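Thread: quick sanity check before group meeting

JM: Hey all, I'm pulling together slides for Thursday and realized we never actually wrote out the predicted structure for the chain we discussed last week. Dropping the sequence here so it's in one place. If anyone has concerns about the input, flag it before I start.
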Amino acid sequence: MSQISINERNTPEQEIGIMKRKISENGTEVVSNGTTKKHKNDVEYFLSYADVELHRTMIEDQKRTNTYRDAIMKGAEKWIKGKVVADVGCGTGILSMFCAQAGASKVYAIEASDIGLHAKKLVEANNFNDVITVLIGKAEDLELPEKVDVIVSEWMGYMLLYETMLPSVLHVRDRYLKSGGKMFPERAVLHMALGETQWITKYEESAFDFWVSLQHLYALDMSILADHAVTKYKDTVHVHMVAQEDIMSFPTVVCDLDLYSVKAEDLAEITHEFSLSSMGNRCLNSLVLWFDVMFPEGVKLSTSPDEEDTHWQNTVLTLPDCRVKQDSLVKGTIKISQDDSYYRHLKLELEYSVDNQEMIRRHFKMDDNCVESDS
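JM (edit): ok, ran it. Output follows.
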């Protein structure tokens, strides 16, 4: 299998062409344009990560970037200095360069998108050529020349699992991590709690009022779209920061992933039975999900509503309004699975009841149409 290292010189157009060919040639079903059905959307996915603005958004999330840097520097003497590191999905190479600053003897920076071309230049500009080698291609397709002591990766998507990047990290772990090697992060936990999110009610009211108001403005009855707009909004996964006061239960752990032992097949479908007790007499209208990841030396990155905002925000599943009282019991099952049409998207199936009343079923699809709401 071919590698493209920092020492080779290809034009950006050649690099993109190589990337597209690598993606298409490793599939199993070829379609008319030469890509495979299996990976057709992956071409667009990786090309989207060539956008410098996307990487600016991630890097200027100071909580994200500083936590990774703190984890690397706190673990430098014990885990990084003089060690071989693989950075899976390196992007601009910033985490690879943190590892070089921490004294790594060698870093393999793996990136499947065209941003890897910029990473090469950034490595050169910061005089890390002798430490960092940028490899452009999918992690599953590349050959590393040696085993590694540490794997660093910022693989988390919305709701932890969106974009399904973790299997690529696990592939590198299984193939190249030495016995006793370290994962940064080494554990990931997805939480869920009951919510009374105020912006849902505000949107519903404004959407309904807009369509009704057209009768007064234009003497046209457009109100039939009012209910449709509200229903569509409720059927959509929302990415939005939720205020701490809008959380109305203690959280339940949907999944707790040990990144030394979890397998890719474990991620294809995750099912969790939950039982959540409401706090106070309120209007239940959502389930709110967030995640934490833990690093060696006790460093933790949390996207909880209790913590500083991050670019991941929280994931909100809207529910039909339901008045609950103190200690009302919401019991049910949530299933998160990779979508049949494209594995980087997710399906969410929810079944629950409130105080043992009628069972309510909700289905969501988490894809490119999920709504990243303004605060």
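AS: nice. Confidence is low (pLDDT under 50) at residues 1-38. The domain at 189-372 is CATH 2.70.160.11 (Hnrnp arginine n-methyltransferase1).
JM: adding both to the slides.
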